[in-house]
Amino acid sequence: MNLRSLLFASLAATAFACGDGADAPDKAAARKGYGDGVWGASYFPNIELTEHSGKKVRFFDDLIEGKVVMINFMFTSCPDVCPMETARLLDVQRLLGERVGTEVHMYSISIDPTRDTPEVLAAYRERWGVQPGWSFYTGKLEEIDLLRQKLGVLAPELDPEMGAMDHNINMVLGNQATGRWMRRSPFENPYGLANDLGTWLTNWKKRSPETLVDQGDKGAPTIRTPSAGEVLFRTRCASCHTLGGVDTWGITTGKRVGPDLYGVVANRDPAWLRRWLAEPDKMLAEKDPLAMSLLAASNGIAMPNAHLTPVDIDNVIAYLSEASAEIDKERAASPATPPR
Ligand code: HEC
């Protein structure tokens, strides 16, 4: 069984078992047709949540009814993987552009609601440069747990007390009106996620040129086997770092959360670089001067410890220097091209 059918199985299993948040029969009848009735108002708990702005909303009535949505669960003090997830979702927002907030809605719900007050969430949004249309919510812990359960993403690994999250299971994309829901990993390619939200879930209603990376227009992709270092970089670093101004899919993007890594292997002391990749959190805690100046230049966002092994570090360093050499070659070949 793949993830999607698993989600359906778990949703279906609880679909009729629970009446939480059910509306009066007349109201429910008026909504018949949404999500075939099964994925309607009687399924999703209509819990109260508070937006980062302080505005109170109801989950079903205000956030998902009749809408295409991305919902992920996070907490602002999460040290390792949440920042990476937020960075990747920023890409999704960038790709969908103005459609976010109108055709497609992005919601991040805190699973640490006591600490994540609306003010804390607002500051987090600001620090990360989240654009309008992507909202953050807090609420009552038990109700948020119920919501995670109903969305099929309640797992013990997702626990602020443990300081850890299993990020393969904390994001759901869906279209409440058609009853199509899917679980997605935030580690997936942001173009794929944007495409899911912007075309598949909207029934291909509109195709914005930015939403799709159309392989058809560009010719078939070159098939090659990426090195271990490249795979690692793509899956675990590229959401925060560009290389020579482009992301790993070759698309020119704006500045990301972390610095561009072109030339970093040549420019840094090798021992410093290796240690940084192994334990950036410790170096920041020790107030390593270079790390502190990079932190200041990154809006105070800290690079998470990716728990790389020494072999991972060899591989990613090799990739970064090869990729930088490639960029040098390209630039030498077409010096007229403005720097990316
Ligand atoms: C959540 C975002 C994020 C992720 C994921 C991330 N980084 Fe970073 N990285 C940063 C930030 C931010 C900085 C700047 C220092 C700071 O603020 O902690 C940084 C700094 C660096 C630097 C130092 C740059 C310099 O100029 O010396 C290197 C090298 C680096 N990162 C490599 C990596 C690699 C390799 C990975 C993947 C294993 C990775 N990063 C994953 C955010 C991230």
Question: Any descriptors?
Answer:
340 residues, alpha/beta, Glutaredoxin, Cytochrome Bc1 Complex, Chain D, domain 2, seven-stranded mixed β-sheet, 7 strands, disordered N terminus, binds heme C
Structure notes:
With 340 residues, the protein is of the alpha/beta class. It folds into two domains: 3-200, 3-Layer(aba) Sandwich (Glutaredoxin), CATH 3.40.30.10; 228-333, Cytochrome c-like domain (Cytochrome Bc1 Complex, Chain D, domain 2, Orthogonal Bundle), CATH 1.10.760. The chain has helices spanning 3-15, 25-30, 59-64, 82-96, 118-128, 141-150, 190-200, 215-218, 228-236, 264-267, 270-278, 280-285, 289-297, 310-333, and strands at residues 48-51, 56-58, 68-74, 104-110, 134-139, 171-175, 180-183. A seven-stranded mixed sheet has the order 2-1-5-4-3-6-7. Residues 1-30 and 204-224 have low confidence and may be disordered. Residues 83-84, 87, 236-237, 239-241, 257-259, 261, 264, 268, 273, 276-277, 280, 284, 294-295, 298, 301-304, 306, 308, 316 line the site of heme C.
